[in-house]
Prior knowledge:
Layout: E1 3-15, E2 46-47, E3 57-62, E4 72-77, E5 82-86, E6 92-105, E7 115-117, E8 122-125
Antiparallel strand pairs: 1-4, 1-5, 1-6, 2-3, 3-4, 6-7, 6-8
Amino acid sequence: MKTVVRLLGAVTLLLGTPAEVLAQGSGANAGHAGHVMITPDDDDWVDAPASLPAGARVMVIDGDPSAAGEFTMRLWFPAGYEIAPHLHPADEHVTVLSGTLYMGLGETLDPDVAGRLPPGGFAMMKA
Length: 127
């Protein structure tokens, strides 16, 4: 079944589960292979890939989203951002850090039946 995602407000999501951790960090991580620490001041945001509608930004935290295997990244969406129904090739874990995420299942985007995830909310979507 396709998953419908509708986002209202600025939303930051954490996707995936780390499998391979970055070999070298910065600041408190320096010299400690296998550790990753991200602070609110870290600003490695880039435009999202073309697989998402324009306006999204991403920060890859761990792994390589373009390769097979697990990865972790944060996504930022502008207010009112919508993602059309789509399939996931792998399980996807989502934690809302700020804003509100509306998610649903089905072939069409229907905000009236979407579930609401506030900050701290979590969803896991199977492949």
